[in-house]
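Morning, I've got a small favour to ask if you have a moment. The fold is given in discrete form, as structure tokens running alongside the sequence. I'd be grateful if you could look everything over and explain what you see. No rush at all, and the record is pasted right below.
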Amino acid sequence: MSETKTNTANHTNRNPWLWVPSLYLAEGIPYMIAMTVSVVLYKNLGLSNTEIALYTSWLYLPWVIKPFWSPFVDMFRTKRFWIILMQLAIGGAFACVALTLPAAGYVKYTLAIFWIMAFSSATHDIAADGFYMLGLDTPQQAAFVGVRTIFYRIATIASKGGLVILAGFLQEHGHTVKSAWAVTFFFAAVVFLALCLYHFFVLPHPASDRSAPLDKSKGVVAEYFRIMSLFFRRKDIVVIILFLLFYRFAEAQLVKMVAPFLLDAREAGGLGLSTAEVGVIYGTVGVISLMLGGLLGGYAIYRNGLKFWLWPMVIIMNVPDLIFVYLSHAQPDNVWLIGAALALEQFGYGFGFTAYTMYMIMISQGEYKTVFYAIGTGIMALGMMIPAMGSGWIQEMLGYKNFYFWILATTIPGFIVAALVKIDPEYGKK
């Protein structure tokens, strides 16, 4: 009898090191493929910057609207069920991208599959973030918050760096662009389906991981709207929404045009790098710098609180955008110089983005943390999607040199919303 109880306890409370790192690898990979790797793919395939920015920005939409179905993830089945199901769907989507790339209408087919993958990934995010809070007690949540961030960034390197490097390597060794990317996506599918199988056996079964209790006096629809309305009924909701929409207004436009700028020929105003070089410089060195900036930012807030660091973080995030003004005018051909410049810009962005993350956590406190955080990330995604959609058209109208001056001008809203928010001086401080 005691042995049965021991086995049940082990099944319920597995060592977090067995599943937290891999869960956040699985959370980061599809997001970066949808947001960044797809940009490199379509640039390699010859689409214009206007088309790339418009098409790939629509992939933000599942993250924008995910708050509307996040209550259903809470109300039906378990978070563990949703995690496994969505990982299976994402792995299948990667394989479908590989299969449709050779087709004549590959753009519409791959975009449709990317959208299904993005929807599955957004649903997976809801379940994974909720499962993290259910599968760990409060001290463990605090202890592993850095671990989940690091492995999410490792996922970024693996996709934004590793997959792009692989596609570039295959192109340099005789594969056509389409066949190189097809092999790359098949590889991604195999890796992701292996993660799905691993989690099927390794994820714990927390006793608290069950369907959320419903108010029996109300129907499902009424309960849904009650939960959703709680977030929007706070008195400072207008400022909250403005902050979530405009803190990264410049970055939302910048991020879509970094890879095209690096890949475009020098006579077109770009830096003329190869696909593999972009994978190394932007997808690996840049992401490591981003991660270091985020870790330092988290430690800074831990020491002095969010209010103390908000303004320094806004400045440190936006001022390095000047680097792109330099790169677009000087067009250096030294790969090490380009890498160092991008590393500095990404470090600043990682440091400054920490304030945004902590603010979202602050406004998500309450009985329905999972739903509130999902709403916050949905508004965040909308703040990325809308500016990004027109960034390619703006760049093609202005050229790279003037586009980066435009980016500097669009940092102003970030400073304005930082001045509007109210934060407890003690929040986030040790």
Notes: The chain is about 80% helix and 0% strand. The CA atoms of residues 153 and 291 lie 6 Å apart. The longest helix spans residues 138-172. The chain has two domains: 17-201, 235-430.
